[in-house]
Specification:
By secondary structure, this protein is mostly helical. It has a domain of 214 residues: MetI-like fold (Orthogonal Bundle). Helices cover 68% and strands 0% of the residues. The chain contains 14 helices and no strands. α13 packs antiparallel against α14. The longest helix has 32 residues. It starts with 6 loop residues before the first helix and ends with a helix.
Length: 316
């Protein structure tokens, strides 16, 4: 504790950080809330003294917009599928890494590399892997020069090429690529958190289970998972928050069209919807702000639900 007579020094040290937070974090949040209630808001016109009606029309227009629920569906699907899968895989990999002592440092570094790599660059690599180079897939009298890296791999098992991301591809194929990429990209951070939790677990629990002749599966579900439940809850909550903000990975694979060339916007998400409203030929700041608040409300509800479940399932 800082003595009361010296508290002013602490505030002076904190002042630069506080000022920056107020300017670049707090003010934009309150300004977004204000703009979301101003119908037809335009910043240049507002500087000239134009007044705008204060109402809920921006929220109503967002909810009535034909692509809004498609973006919401894509976002929810990606979250519901990728968060549990990536968490379970990260837990299994962390347990394996924790049991491999000689090469644990090297393997940790390898698994952590995707976390420090630009997501757009990784998306472009994935696009090249799943891309079918050549003519349009399935077009009569045209030949595909190569089926792509992934199709060549699955061809070894006797399976035919799949149109993953090119024109004419299906929604299921597109979502499969996105799920694979997002899960792979989410693993490093979760592995790091869970591995740190595993290394802090008291080894006496495992020694007692070994003496009792407990099976590995039972040790995993009855000892490892309960003791790691705070870390698991943390990575699940942050995973859902990150999943609802998914955007750059889709741009990295499909480009700004957010979908195959013949169906632009097929995989658009909530964040993509907000960007489209802001950077279209006729930007709508009020509708973008309203969509951002709706997204914030959804994330808040999901986070509170996770916290409620965590109180009953997490063992501290």
């Amino acid at each position: 504790m800082v003595e009361s007579r010296h508290q002013w020094k602490a505030w002076i040290y904190l002042a630069p950080a506080i000022v920056l937070l107020l300017i670049f974090t707090v003010y934009p949040i309150f300004n977004t809330i204000r703009i979301s209630f101003l119908e037809g808001y335009n910043p240049l016109e507002a500087m000239n003294g134009t007044k705008y009606a204060f109402n809920l029309q921006n929220f109503a227009k967002v909810l009535k917009y034909k692509n809004f629920f498609k973006c919401l569906k894509n976002t929810l699907l990606l979250c519901v599928i990728t968060v549990p899968v990536s968490t379970l895989l990260a837990l299994l990999i962390a347990v394996c890494l924790n049991s491999i002592k000689p090469l644990s440092r090297l393997l940790q570094t390898i698994f952590f590399l995707p976390y420090v790599t630009n997501s757009i660059a990784i998306g472009m690599v994935f696009a090249a892997m799943f891309n079918m180079v050549g003519s349009a897939y399935g077009t009569p009298n045209q030949i595909i020069t190569t089926a792509g890296i992934i199709n060549n791999i699955i061809g070894v098992f006797g399976l035919g090429p799949v149109n993953w991301i090119n024109s004419g591809s299906t929604y299921l194929a597109n979502m499969t690529v996105m799920v694979i990429y997002i899960v792979w990209n989410a693993l490093p951070f979760k592995i790091l958190i869970l591995l740190g939790g595993l290394q802090s677990v008291n080894k006496q629990y495992y020694d007692a289970a070994k003496v009792d002749g407990t099976s590995r599966a039972r040790v995993f579900w009855r000892i490892t998972v309960p003791l790691l439940s705070p870390m698991i809850a943390y990575v699940v909550i942050t995973g859902f928050i990150g999943g609802f903000k998914e955007y750059s990975s889709i741009v990295g694979i499909f480009g700004e069209k957010m979908g195959p060339a013949d169906d632009a916007g097929r995989l658009n998400t909530m964040v993509g919807f907000i960007y489209n409203e802001l950077y279209s030929s006729t930007p709508n700041y009020g509708r973008a702000s309203a969509a951002a608040l709706i997204l914030f409300g959804i994330i808040l509800i999901v986070t509170l639900l996770n916290l409620y479940v965590s109180k009953k399932r997490v063992h501290y």
